[in-house]
Amino acid sequence: MSKYKITINGKEYEMDVELMDGSAPVSKAPAKVSKPASAPAAASKPAPSAAPAGATVSPMPGTILKVNVKEGDQVKAGDSVVILEAMKMENDITAPKDGVVKKLFVSEKQAVAKGEALFEVE
Question: For the chain, what is the radius of gyration of the CA atoms?
Answer without folding.
Answer: 26
